[in-house]
Amino acid sequence: MIIKILLLLLGLGLVVAGAEALVEGASSIARRSGVSEFVIGLTIVGFGTSLPELVVSVTGALEGNSAIAIGNVVGSNVFNVLLILAVSALARPITITKSNHYRDIPVTLGVTLLLIALGMSRTLFGLGAADGLSRLEGAVFVLLFIAYIIWCFRSGRSQETVEGDSDDVKIYPIFLSVIMVLAGLAGLVFGGRLFVDSAEAVARMLNVSDKFIAITVLAMGTSLPELVTCIVALAKHRSQLALGNILGSNVFNILLILGTSALITPMSFATVNLVDMATLALSAILVFTAIYTGKRNMIDRLDGSIMLAAFIGYMVWLFIKL
Fold first, then answer.
1. Is 179 exposed, middle or buried (0-12, 13-18, 19+ CB in 10 A)?
2. How confident is the model at residue 167 (pLDDT cuts 50, 70, 90)?
3. Which residue from 6, 76, 201, 300 has the fewest beta carbons nearer than 10 Å?
4. CA distances in angstroms from 140 to 21, 52, 158, 302, listed in the order given
């Protein structure tokens, strides 16, 4: 038991250290390249923290198990917003810039609703033989992803001023910045895995049920890298890096991960239901409405509280249905 607890603490330490190195390295790259921290968060940080989801979903697709790919993406996107963004906003309100307002948040909402419309077309509209994504739709998703990234880089060559964010960024040599990012991602991935495995082992030693472990330790543990990265970014007054991480992960999950998976094998949505998809839609809608509610153009503590309440409600529903 003591060894497992020590391993759990070691895993948590690796995640925190990895997040620290990742945020510092990513911020340095942003300043050196002249690209906004949001775009760096959207690409380097967002993609990096979503690599486990990419591996899981593509592996599931190669094995013909689309349920893994779909469930992985839906669950990850819900957790990213309703838990991670909520906790981040409660810790420190996140300012929404003009680019976030007119480009990034509407795109996140749009691709989420597009996924639901195409994936649940038979249930919602009575169209098609079954719910799912075809190879053609997967190709469209991948092309939309490429177009969005190009758009972000072309319009993101400026450092938007965000009230409350610090301009005191330590700039490292480019090779050292890249090493810091790679080492940070490695710390997040391996530390997160060690944390989850150790926490699961401790829970089993305490005779906790498999159902409870699935909903708490495993589900929340897989989102630990994104959670810690966002909290570290906010603590360092890098709110755009934190927001880019969340929105980037969600767009990456839908357009690239599910797009690529659908190209490998058509995706069936038979294992997800309307409650799952409604929660996914709600997560994107709550980010969008944060532009206009409470403190305008800010994801404030009220928004975070609403998101967290929705997350708790969804978890209770899942626990009851297990």
1. middle
2. low
3. 6
4. 35, 23, 29, 36
Residue 244 contacts residue 45 (beta carbons within 8 Å): yes
pTM of the predicted model as reported, rounded to 2 decimal places: 0.82
Average pLDDT on 149-166 reads 66
DSSP state of 170: P
Tell me the domain boundaries of the chain.
36-165+222-321
The torsion of the CA quartet 25, 26, 29, 34, rounded to 10 degrees, works out to -150
Query: What is the rounded distance in angstroms from the CA atom of residue 33 to the CA atom of residue 151?
Result: 16
The residues, ordered by sequence, that sit 6+ positions from 115 with a Cβ below 8 Å of its Cβ are 133, 254, 258, 280
Q: What is the pLDDT of residue 170?
A: 74
What number does CATH give the domain 36-165+222-321? 1.20.1420.30
Q: Which two tokens stand for residue 120?
A: 């649940």
The H or E element that residue 299 is part of is strand 298-299
User: What local confidence, expressed as pLDDT, does residue 194 receive?
Assistant: 81
